[in-house]
């Protein structure tokens, strides 16, 4: 290397001699001459952002994030903090995985394609549906994509998308945006003691809601477990009501729940959506991995990327992105979705995590999600001033507890003592056991006793 | 291709490069699937919490009617799993493997220290935590909003969109909400023919009719065609600048004027911002709304397809429509409740991490006329942490230099290759034409020279397009090697190209067969 390194980006390797040689080859005097920018729009100010060494930058970020309180989180409602094995970090952080992009050149990307093919296969096993894509952004956008799928395949008349009256607001509000460009409208159906109110549901599907005669329902959405942690008991009935009405049955779940609870294919689900990063990512402020699986019937209407098997010139089995004519880069405004960059690396992490657990480990993790949640409910129910669970149902991972005192005050007292819980109503808190070690749960119960006592 | 010497490039630098990617072949087949290494079925035995568990069953606390019957997955030991994924990683080419000049994707080096800060335990917080208990997370988001506002010349920023296309969707939904608010019914979005597929798809997702805008002979927006396309039906024009040919839209001020004259909004697709850092700000060009593509411009890893992040900046009049929630600063120093740019410089003086004075506090708020949400929570948080770290590391000086070197590298590389580059003057990327050769075949052959090929066959305005973006991170020597690969392939005949690649893990893959008989899971393979 000749000359001295140019000041500026620490990741641009040029020396001044090289820069000069390159300019000479181009036939330009200065780098500025290469910019064809009219004077009127040139920016001659400064952003006012300091440059820092790597060490200073790390200190800066550490110092900012250091303002977060270190709390034990009993939080869930769609985002969970299960322990992620170290193996997942180390393998996924291999730079070939991290620094590659979409596999437009499959011959040089077989490793990632195979990992994504395996991820799709894991979801096929978990859902019982034949087709899983290799990712949407998160559970909420996957739900939105399911609605646009329903829009594309529906029989002409219907416009209603039915969701439970209790649905995480992030999902509901995202769904509203995804259907805004269609004539679909999002409406609710009632729940009863934490699960679907079958009679009310049927009435809404048939169009006999408060508004009188309405158009057909084109899609119904139910969750298992629900946002309040209850396990849905009537999935098959929901599925057949949806089927009778020719509505697309979309079921929300996640890979841990799917390992134990009823298999979506067995209850008539047409599409499964949810957050697959429940495995693979630690608590990440809501960052997720949109799970999207559906039946073969809708193969040509699936949004997002699909990896398929093929053969190479030596006739050996290989993998490649396939059915790309559904996608935006080919089909443009007639694509099945606008998604391009997705969550592939998170899907890789999820697949490694599932692999690390194996079938037994995964089912046991799911079983513990039931027993630990229900045991915690019993223990807090023993405290004066707390009734749990609020719903007389089986629970997965989390449950709602009634507190005699204002829930907000209790949560705030708990926070001062190192615990974070959900406030879901004036006198309701929600508690989740995922990722919380047993000894922390013990000390939580003791702390809650102090707080409500 | 069995000849060991084919694929050795003799570039202008006179370097001999030969590449062989890892390839495991066992009994005539490549690395087995996890499912071919093991599949174990466990039965789920309902309604028992304890009692005997056999090798094949797991006891479940739930009654059978609430559970599935069984689950069949690979059961591998940890060392076996480590080898499986390590082998797979060896069959992937990333930026750390060599040059990756994939046009429009800005495949720049991803500094690993950003992984370290994203992995900090203090970053691992739940989105439903009280605002008071996550001041660090909110401060980082606020500061990143502020950085991006300054860089884009925008007044307000949301970090919620999880990718560029999601940012576009926010833009389109904001345009809809804005016109709606003014009782102005508009149903068209104009997109240049050379635009990225997501622009068309996003406009359609938002319910708009897409009006395609032809380019002029120079490869830029045709002002006459624009005039014809614009009307009181125009909700927005989506543009990237430099455009996908790398050309700066010189008439941008005029374009903005005309769009605004008919009451439309001007949207900036931030995919090409890496050309403009420190030199031009979309806000100054007259754009009302833009997305930033942080996995491109701000060096967060592409992760084999994602995750990315696509924050959106808007001018003041559109700020009330931004997605919910946003972060604002309350109390503390200068600018209360506003995150507009220029709020007293970068407070980079707090890196000591020790005693901090009167600290401002940060809170979430719902913009007055918000479009709602495009993600269940706050978007791709871990990506945002990395983007913040990258911008804080480079600062003004590093960012401006990144663009300078990106443009220098593209121009130098183009000057060294034999393929024709029909449109000039380009900036951070150029589109060469493979001429009589098939661009897709050229790409396959380039793989044998140990480089990643350019984006092919797009934009279609250049026949057999080779859209090339080397980014600022390549040295002259690497660019010479890259040019050597282009030139070696340019001189080869069609038969050689069609037989390529020969040195990658897999040989040429049959796309038609994959699509004709979709096999999308190991279960589907077993059924064959
Ligand atoms: C010009 C252009 N616009 C938009 C996008 C979409 O961005 P993303 O893939 O982050 O959704 C891309 C990139 O892939 C692009 O190159």
TrEMBL record, chain A:
A Pfam match: GDC-P
GO molecular function, a single term: glycine dehydrogenase (decarboxylating) activity
Leading EC class: oxidoreductase
SUPFAM superfamilies: PLP-dependent transferases
Signal sequence interval, chain numbering: none
Glycine cleavage system P-protein N-terminal domain sequence ranges: 11-433
UniProt key word Transmembrane helix: no
UniProt keyword annotations, A-Z: Oxidoreductase
EC code(s) of this entry: 1.4.4.2
GO terms of biological process kind: nucleoside metabolic process
Oxidoreductase recorded as keyword: yes
UniProt protein name: Aminomethyl-transferring glycine dehydrogenase subunit GcvPA
From TrEMBL, chain B:
Domain of life according to the entry: Archaea
Record InterPro entries: Aminotrans_V_dom (IPR000192), GDC-P_C (IPR049316), GDC_P (IPR020581), PyrdxlP-dep_Trfase (IPR015424), PyrdxlP-dep_Trfase_major (IPR015421), PyrdxlP-dep_Trfase_small (IPR015422)
Catalytic reactions on record: N(6)-[(R)-lipoyl]-L-lysyl-[glycine-cleavage complex H protein] + glycine + H(+) = N(6)-[(R)-S(8)-aminomethyldihydrolipoyl]-L-lysyl-[glycine-cleavage complex H protein] + CO2
Protein EC: 1.4.4.2
Oxidoreductase among keywords: yes
Record's compositionally biased regions (Basic and acidic residues): 17-49
Protein name per its UniProtKB record: glycine dehydrogenase (aminomethyl-transferring)
Originating species: Natrarchaeobius chitinivorans
Organism phylogeny: Archaea, Methanobacteriati, Methanobacteriota, Stenosarchaea group, Halobacteria
């Amino acid at each position: 290397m000749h000359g001295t390194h140019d000041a500026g980006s620490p990741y641009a390797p040029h020396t001044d001699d090289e820069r000069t040689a390159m300019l000479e080859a181009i036939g330009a005097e200065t780098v500025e001459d290469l910019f064809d920018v009219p004077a009127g729009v040139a920016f001659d100010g400064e952003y006012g952002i300091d440059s820092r060494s790597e060490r200073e930058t790390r200190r800066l970020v550490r110092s900012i994030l250091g303002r977060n309180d270190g709390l034990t989180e009993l939080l869930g409602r769609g985002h969970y903090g299960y322990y992620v094995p170290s193996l997942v970090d180390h393998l996924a952080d291999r730079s070939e995985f991290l620094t590659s992009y979409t596999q437009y050149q499959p011959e040089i990307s077989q490793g990632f394609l195979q990992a994504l093919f395996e991820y799709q296969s894991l979801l096929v096993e978990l859902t019982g549906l034949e087709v899983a894509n290799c990712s949407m952004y998160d559970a909420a956008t996957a739900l939105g994509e399911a609605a646009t799928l329903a829009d594309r395949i529906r029989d002409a008349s219907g416009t209603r998308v039915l969701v439970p009256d209790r649905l995480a607001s992030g999902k509901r509000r995202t769904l509203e945006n995804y259907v805004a460009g269609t004539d679909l409208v999002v409406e609710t159906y009632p729940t009863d003691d934490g699960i679907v109110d079958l009679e009310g549901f049927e009435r809404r599907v048939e169009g006999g809601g408060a508004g009188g005669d309405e158009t057909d329902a084109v899609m119904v959405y139910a969750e298992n477990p629900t946002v309040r942690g209850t396990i849905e008991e009537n999935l098959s009935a929901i599925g057949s009501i949806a089927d009778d009405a020719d509505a697309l049955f979309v079921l929300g779940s996640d890979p841990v729940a799917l390992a134990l609870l009823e298999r979506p294919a067995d209850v008539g689900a047409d599409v499964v959506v949810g957050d697959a990063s429940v495995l693979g990512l630690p608590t990440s402020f809501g960052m997720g991995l949109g799970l999207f699986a559906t039946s073969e019937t809708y193969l040509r209407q699936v949004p997002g990327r699909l990896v398929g098997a093929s053969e190479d010139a030596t006739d050996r089995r290989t993998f490649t992105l396939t059915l790309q004519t559904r996608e935006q880069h080919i089909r443009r405004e007639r694509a099945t979705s606008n998604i391009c960059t997705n969550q592939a690396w998170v899907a890789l992490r999820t697949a490694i995590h599932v692999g690390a657990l194996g079938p037994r480990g995964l089912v046991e993790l799911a079983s513990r999600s039931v027993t630990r949640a229900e045991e915690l409910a019993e223990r807090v129910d023993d405290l004066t001033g707390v009734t749990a669970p609020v719903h007389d149902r089986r629970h997965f991972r989390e449950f709602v507890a009634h507190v005699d005192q204002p829930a907000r005050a209790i949560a705030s007292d708990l926070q001062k003592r190192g615990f974070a819980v959900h406030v879901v109503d004036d006198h309701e808190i929600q508690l989740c056991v995922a990722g919380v070690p047993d000894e922390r749960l013990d000390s939580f119960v003791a702390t809650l006793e102090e707080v409500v006592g | 291709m069995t000849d060991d010497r084919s694929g050795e490039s003799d570039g202008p630098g006179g370097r001999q490069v030969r590449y062989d990617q890892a390839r495991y072949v066992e009994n005539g087949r490549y690395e087995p699937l996890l499912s071919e290494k093991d599949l174990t079925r466990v039965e789920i035995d309902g309604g028992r919490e304890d009692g005997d568990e056999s090798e094949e069953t797991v006891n479940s606390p739930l009654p059978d009617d609430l559970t599935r019957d069984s689950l069949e997955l690979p059961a591998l030991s940890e060392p076996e799993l480590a080898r499986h994924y390590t082998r797979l990683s060896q069959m992937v080419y990333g930026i750390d493997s060599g040059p990756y000049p994939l046009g429009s994707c800005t495949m720049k080096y991803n500094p690993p220290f950003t992984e370290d800060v994203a992995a900090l335990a203090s970053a691992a917080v739940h989105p439903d935590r009280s605002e008071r208990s996550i001041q660090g997370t909110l401060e980082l988001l606020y500061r990143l909003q502020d950085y991006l506002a300054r860089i884009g010349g925008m007044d307000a920023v949301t970090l919620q969109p999880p990718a560029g296309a999601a940012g576009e969707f926010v833009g389109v939904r904001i345009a809809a909400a804005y016109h709606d608010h003014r009782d102005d019914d508009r149903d068209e979005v104009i997109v240049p023919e050379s635009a990225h597929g997501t622009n068309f798809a996003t406009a359609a997702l938002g319910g708009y009719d897409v009006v395609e805008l032809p380019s002029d002979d120079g490869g830029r927006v045709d002002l006459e065609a624009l005039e014809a396309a614009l009307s009181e039906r125009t909700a927005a024009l989506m543009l990237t600048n430099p455009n996908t040919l790398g050309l700066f839209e010189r008439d941008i001020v005029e374009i903005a004027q005309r769009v605004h004259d008919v009451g439309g909004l001007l949207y900036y697709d931030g995919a090409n911002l890496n050309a403009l850092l420190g030199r031009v700000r979309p806000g100054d060009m007259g754009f009302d709304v833009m997305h930033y593509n942080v996995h491109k411009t701000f060096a967060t890893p592409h992760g084999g397809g994602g995750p990315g992040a696509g924050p959106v900046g808007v001018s003041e009049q559109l700020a009330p429509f931004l997605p919910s929630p946003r972060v604002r600063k309350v109390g503390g120093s200068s600018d209360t409740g506003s995150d507009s740019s220029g709020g007293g410089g970068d407070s980079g003086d707090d890196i000591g991490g020790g005693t901090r004075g009167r600290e401002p506090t940060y809170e979430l708020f719902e913009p007055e006329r918000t479009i709602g949400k495009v993600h269940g929570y706050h978007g791709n948080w871990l990506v945002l942490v990395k983007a913040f770290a990258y911008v804080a590391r480079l600062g003004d000086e590093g960012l401006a230099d990144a663009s300078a070197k990106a443009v220098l590298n593209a121009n130098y590389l183009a000057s060294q290759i034999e393929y024709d580059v029909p449109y000039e003057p380009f900036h951070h990327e150029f589109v060469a034409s493979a001429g009589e050769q098939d661009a897709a075949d050229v790409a396959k052959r380039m793989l044998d020279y140990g480089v990643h090929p350019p984006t092919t066959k797009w934009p279609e305005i250049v026949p057999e397009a080779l859209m090339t973006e080397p980014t600022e991170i390549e040295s002259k020597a690497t660019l010479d090697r890259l040019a050597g690969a282009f030139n070696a392939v340019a001189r080869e005949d069609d038969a050689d190209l069609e037989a390529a690649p020969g040195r990658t893990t897999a040989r040429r893959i049959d796309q038609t067969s994959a699509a004709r008989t979709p096999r999308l899971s190991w279960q589907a393979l077993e059924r064959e």
